[in-house]
Design goal:
Blueprint (H helix, E strand, L loop, with lengths): L1 H18 L3 H8 L3 H29 L24 E6 L2 E6 L5 H11 L4
Antiparallel strand pairs: 1-2
Helix pairs in contact: 1-3, 2-3
């Protein structure tokens, strides 16, 4: 029953749009409620737009993402932030111990040894 009502209102809306009359003029002449005619006009337009939109999306999903024969720019990611290398000095009772992780900087170690041994 809803389908018949929608079909009937679709015909009324089409007739109104082609008549050149205002909504109120057409509705009065056809014995229809102008508000209901406007409601169906909006509803049918939205349904047609939604249908066209979903068809366009389905078509686009089947197309190639990139046009054939065109180049696209591929950006290389920037440097990955690394945590700083750890160099720890533990001193006590005339002795010291240096602890470092695998990523230590040899020049930083050399500077530390120079300071400890009084060369700098």
């Amino acid at each position: 029953m809803k389908l018949r009502a929608a079909d009937a209102w679709a015909k009324h809306v089409k007739d109104w749009k082609t008549s050149g009359l205002t909504c109120r003029q057409f509705a009065d002449g056809a014995g229809l409620n102008a508000g209901t005619l406007m409601y169906w006009s909006t509803r049918l337009r939205k349904a047609a737009t939604a249908g066209a939109s979903s068809k366009a999306k389905a078509t686009a999903s089947r197309r190639r993402i990139f046009p054939k024969g065109e180049f696209i720019e591929v950006l290389r990611p920037g440097p990955i932030a690394q945590r700083p290398a750890t160099l720890t000095l533990v001193a006590g009772r005339g002795q010291f111990e240096i602890r470092m992780d695998d990523e230590f900087n040899p020049s930083a170690l050399a500077k530390l040894l120079d300071v400890i041994e009084g060369r700098e």
